[in-house]
Amino acid sequence: MAAHGVRESRELSVDTALHLLGTIGFGRVAFSRYALPAIRPVSHALVEDHLVIYADAATTGSLDRQVVAYEVDAIDHRTSLGWCVIVTGIADTVRDQHEIVHYQQFLPARTVGSGDRVTRILPDIVTGIEYVGPEEADR
């Protein structure tokens, strides 16, 4: 266990990063809104080769056809150990009702607002970093 935040970092393979991304259903999407950076928490699922997010219209309305970054992490606040995955790609609002129904079965259950939308992101760049204690760094 890392003491006082002492840690090493190592890059994760794309396959490992995507696997970890699939273990959590909640992350943060970073996008441009009114030419300024914005970050919003949203629900997500990995479906086939897409990252699918579910968010309110105020967030997803700004995403259509722009490059976005999506971040998920599981980092222990006490030890600073864990992992972080970032996916970058072009966001596309899903408009076909059959596709929406298909994707919704994979998304975490929650109360659905009337203006909520499903957005699909085709991952272009996937990066992952794992933060480990010095004793695990050489493994």
Description:
By secondary structure, the chain is mainly β. Helix content is 14%, strand content 48%. The chain is built from 3 helices and 7 strands; from the N terminus they run βαβββαββαβ. It has helices spanning 14-21, 57-60, 97-104; strands at 8-11, 26-33, 36-47, 50-55, 67-75, 82-93, 117-132. The protein has a 6-stranded antiparallel β-barrel. Strand 5 and strand 6 (82-93) form a beta hairpin. The longest helix is centred in the first third of the chain and has 8 residues, at 14-21. The chain is globular, with a radius of gyration of 16 Å. It starts with 7 loop residues before the first strand and ends in a 7-residue tail after the last strand.
Question: Which key phrases capture this entry?
Answer:
139 residues, mainly beta, six-stranded antiparallel barrel, 3 helices, 48% strand, globular
Q: Which spans of ≥5 residues are poorly predicted at pLDDT below 50?
A: none
Radius of gyration: 16 Å
Percentage beta strand: over 45%
Profile the largest sheet: 6 strands, antiparallel, barrel
Span from first to last CA?
A: 15 Å
Succession of helices and strands = EHEEEHEEHE
Largest sheet: spatial strand order: 2-3-4-7-6-5
Q: Overall 3D geometry?
A: globular
Count of alpha/pi helices: 3
Mean pLDDT: 85
Number of strands: 7
| Helix fraction bin | 10-25%
Structural class given helices, strands, pairing? mainly beta
